[in-house]
Write the structure tokens for this entry.
Amino acid sequence: MAVSLRLLSACSSLITNKTLVSASKSCVFRSNCLLNRGIKRYVRAVKTEMKRRKDKMDPQPPHPRNTYAEWNYNSELFAFGKRLGEDFNKEFLQQAFVERSYIISEEEKQKKVGIEEPQILLKDNREYAEKGEYIIAEYSKRYLRTVYPRFPEEGICSVSDYLLSDDVLADISIHIGTSDLILTPDYPPSDKTLANVLKAVVYALSLSSGEDKASIFVRDFIITYLSGKDINELWSIKNPESVLASILEREGKSSVEPRLTGEAGKNTILSAFQVGLYCNKELVGMGFGESIPVAKEVAAMDALKRLFHTTERAKPIPFDLVLASDKKEPFANISIEDWCEKNIKSMVTKH
């Protein structure tokens, strides 16, 4: 037993010595690598202290990139078009990024230094934004009508208004890199400014490369924002049960009959009801809710989705369609007040 203990002690000391030697060799190797790479020992301590002092400071406001010494506005404008794969006229694109507030601020600066009649050679983008908004609205409606011919015109307009909202256009504008190119006294630019610039860019592309290029740009960068979204949620239908009853009446069908097809947790806070709507003994809609009236309303909405072919099981919206630019007639989908299968078939035959 004593021999075993002495042997164990000798082995442990031998292992410890080898570990210390290998650790010392590793430290020497690392220090040599650091010296060979030109990194001094004080670098880490200095950076740690700098970070500690920076964390103690108040948060600094963001600075635009055009305040940097290496900023070249003309090069950035050229690169903006190439990143998007478009050929812009330099003058048209530059005007698209000039906000009216920027011109006003520049005039005030000149007046402060004694210039009574300031002259600014730049033009603002108000006209471009108005015409660009028209292009986006018209093409998005045409595209949605082509993809969803059974969707009521009120729904088409509601989805188009969603795409033209400041929140959506501003999000798209930021992601294509417009925020640093906008000439505005405020930084970061507001959502309204970002949206106006994107509209102006669309019109600038129309002037530079033609209306077809601008339409494809709207399809690729704006209409694709609907990817993964349910268009039914972008249009609020008031009283869907009444709307469904009116459609069935115009089609000469009997009124729907609601039936309770399932329930769980009755008289509890976790109650759930399943209601089916039947017309001529045929299921036309199914809905769930925490109460029977709510389930009936959801079932009516489901029945309308089936009529419009916009259910969750429908095919996703395609983003590769090319609409003919020479087709200018202002057709529209059937209104919800006139919607019925007969009118839908006549509209599809006409167009």
Remarks:
- The chain is about 55% helix and 5% strand.
